[in-house]
Fold this sequence. Notes:
Elements: E1 2-3, E2 7-9, E3 14-16, E4 20-21, H1 32-42, H2 47-64, H3 93-107, H4 110-130, H5 156-163, H6 169-181, H7 185-189, E5 196-197, E6 202-206, E7 212-216, H8 219-229, E8 239-243, E9 259-261, H9 264-274, H10 276-279, H11 297-309, H12 314-321, H13 326-329, H14 337-346, H15 349-354
Antiparallel strand pairs: 1-4, 2-3, 5-6, 6-7, 8-9
Amino acid sequence: MAIEPVTELGGGGAIRLPRARVVPLSAPPSSYTAAVERYLTGAGIAKSSARIYRISLTTWGWMFAGEPAPTGPARRGAKLPVFPIAAIDDPALPEVLAELAAARADEMDADTVNRELSIARKAIGWWQRQGWIECDPTIGIERRPAPPDRTKALAENQIAALWRLDIGLREKTFWKMLYESAARADEVLCLNVEDLYPADKRGRITAKGGATEWIHWQSGTAQLLPRLIARRTRGPLFLTDRKAPAATATLDMCPETSRARLSYRRAEEIFEENTRLLANPLASPEDIEDLDGWTLHRLRHSALTHDAENGTSTPMLLARSRHASVRSLERYARPGVDAVARHVAERDPAARRRG
């Protein structure tokens, strides 16, 4: 870190304080995209989190370039503009960025917007410490209030309806595993065939922070896995339908089929599209394009909520969810609307007399 010389301001003896200038620890990367990859590897982001970070930072990349981030189907195949990481220091960017972020916040849910903002600020701080940029153009952009959603847990009849959907083997296995294991979707998508222990109905995952942990599933997943794996012995468990592009990382490509690992973004899109009518049972099928479906996270939320409703102990819920504290578990261990309805009905004295 270098220190600029101290200079006097005017004749009144006022002194301008020295300003620290960060000397780059290494040569700045050639582009913003390269800076993102340097951050993901240099900051020690866990593999299970790197996909979400990359998606969020790609979204911010559009806005750092002064353009709205594409959403929905338009995002697939969209090419991020190429620009140097130093463009983030453009004095005009904060005002433009504030407008783009506000417009995006109007279209997306608060949890998504807040998560993306948090990830962007972590990356910016890391780039500043490398000396590649000086400014944080997100200063002044506020987190969006996110009122607690008490309805994230799906009812058991909604889960049953989900299993009745006419879907492919990959989605059927993935959704079953998410619900039965109560694992995070990004963790499950990072599973490789060699991480599975089918006889024990468990799998080895890399959790938040890089720790090695285990997830456990039930018979529904166990019956589907052999068909999904076929004769493969290694490589990503959940694969795309097509062969991987040439630039795909070796770790994300099946050496036996040359297909790529299914991305979180695509998995979320498929789930959301297939659950639109389930999420909006009174809507007409003709209106499906204008509807919102469920998110993958609701399968984890539902599994833990249903466990709590069925009397699972707090220590077991902590072990199953792999949360570090009871406080983190509270939002999952809240009985759902159907469970409350059953509780009230079972204690209805008039109903007991009629019986």
